[in-house]
Design a protein that fits this description.
- Helix content is 80%, strand content 0%.
- It has helices spanning 2-32, 45-64, 68-91, 98-115, 118-133, 135-144, 147-166, 182-206, 212-237, 242-267, 269-296, 314-338, 340-351, 355-365, 374-399, 402-425.
- Helix 1 runs antiparallel to helix 2 (45-64).
- With 426 residues, it is mostly helical.
- The chain has two domains: 2-133, no CATH class; 146-425, no CATH class.
């Protein structure tokens, strides 16, 4: 019985390697059949499937013979064959090494499959296939980025991979300052910067010129305030597009609700079970009004300039870190001395400037064993979101055209009334 179980497990490992090779090979063969594809491939579906099996067989033989030299020798032979194939294609004018590199990775995933780490092997295979398929998008991204973007990306990598791991994970300060833990504060800086950075990359890949609505939807990940400011200003100079501009602004505001729920889900899943109800209700109302505007909007089109700058710079990141620490301390202190009323007041005041900092602060404070109950934290987050939305509404009222104000006002009032009303009924 034990023997049969071992055999079944062995077949399962080889079968997973075969499927991984078929997946990668299918993508490679399909890619090289597309019109305009200049890089030539030495192999397709069958070749990559065999390479994955070869890796699995090499690891199997090395294990059976108790010699790592067997694996190294087979890897050297496979690598030699791949280099010969590269030399042959390079002589014909194709100097890309993407397929050859994918072949080596496929061989190694076969080795990982035999080792029994099937989840890791499958994840690597999927990641590699996605990366291979995103050739056009990555080239578009490279063409659109600037030197400042590269610098910002490297800075983000430094603060994430170098600075974060060495920060203290405990606070030595007395109460109420004991809530200030350097590692936790900087982790929130990395987290929120990462979300904004992702939104910015999407704008670079998809392009802000694909349409006003798409710009609002994707731009909301980077900065809903920037979307609001941009389209409010444009509404004064471009007539007839007030409905598309209102649609873009409301879409950006809707993304804010999704963004808040993602932040809470990462920090405090228990809080999400309460706060998702009012935020989802507000999101549904906002989305319904967006659909209404989409059906009524002008048929005219406009190519919106890419006004989004890279959201990650060291200065703003440090500012956010200080703001988060201050709001975390404020919320903690008001909870200790003023109770729920203090939380609500600090939420409204903090939301005027930034909704992310207060969201992360209340999510942290309401974790198990902390000083804030989940219901109060949920209400505080919704009040902060409402406060932040009112600030952006003020931008529209102050800088937008008269018609834009009239169009956006019903959606604004319905969304805010739904969010605040639902959270205080729960």
């Amino acid at each position: 019985m034990v023997f049969e179980t071992a055999q079944i497990d062995l077949f399962y490992r080889f079968g997973t390697a075969l499927l991984i090779g078929l997946l990668v090979g299918l993508q490679r063969e399909y890619a090289h059949l597309q019109p305009g594809e200049e890089e030539r491939s030495f192999g397709g579906t069958r070749t990559f499937a065999l390479l994955a099996l070869l890796g699995c067989i090499a690891a199997f033989l090395a294990d059976q013979l108790d010699s790592i030299a067997v694996l190294i020798a087979i890897l050297a032979i496979g690598g030699g064959l791949i280099m010969i194939a590269y030399y042959a294609t390079a002589r014909e004018g194709s100097i890309g090494m993407t397929t050859e590199a994918a072949a080596l990775v496929t061989f190694l995933t076969g080795v990982i499959c035999y080792r029994g780490d099937l989840a890791i092997a499958a994840a690597l295979a999927v990641a590699m296939t996605v990366l291979l398929e995103l050739k056009l998008q990555t080239r578009t991204l490279v063409r659109n980025i600037t030197r400042a973007d590269v610098y910002a990306t490297l800075t983000f990598a430094v603060i994430t991979l170098i600075i974060l791991p060495v920060l203290p994970t405990r606070s030595i300060l007395p109460e109420p300052f004991d809530i200030l833990v350097p590692y936790n504060i900087w982790l929130m800086v990395v987290f929120i910067s990462g979300i904004s950075f992702l939104g910015y990359l999407l704008i670079k890949v998809i392009g802000a010129r694909r349409g006003v609505g798409l710009t609002g939807l994707v731009g909301g990940l980077a900065s809903s305030t920037a979307v609001t400011l941009s389209f409010a200003q444009r509404s004064r100079t471009v007539a007839g597009l007030e409905k598309p501009f209102a649609l873009a602004i409301l879409l950006a505001w809707s993304v804010m609700f999704v963004r808040i729920m993602i932040e809470i889900a990462v920090i405090n899943p228990a809080l999400l079970r309460i706060v998702w109800i009012p935020l989802t209700a507000a999101l549904i109302v906002s989305a319904a009004y967006c659909i209404y505007l989409y059906r009524l909007q002008s048929t005219g089109k406009i190519e919106e300039e890419d006004t989004f700058k890279n959201p990650f710079e060291l200065g703003p990141a440090l500012t956010f870190g200080l703001a988060y620490a201050a709001i975390l301390l404020l919320a903690h202190t008001t909870t200790l001395y003023l109770g729920n009323a203090g939380v609500y007041l600090s939420s409204i005041a903090s939301g005027l400037a930034d909704v992310d900092a207060i969201t992360l602060s209340l999510a942290k404070l309401s974790q198990s064993g902390q000083s804030l109950d989940l219901q109060t934290a949920a209400r505080g987050i919704v009040l902060a979101a409402a406060s932040n939305t009112l600030v952006k509404a003020g931008i529209v009222l102050g800088m937008g055209s008269v018609l834009l104000r009239k169009i956006i006002l019903p959606g604004l009032l319905l969304t805010l009334a739904t969010a605040v009303g639902v959270v205080f009924v729960l």
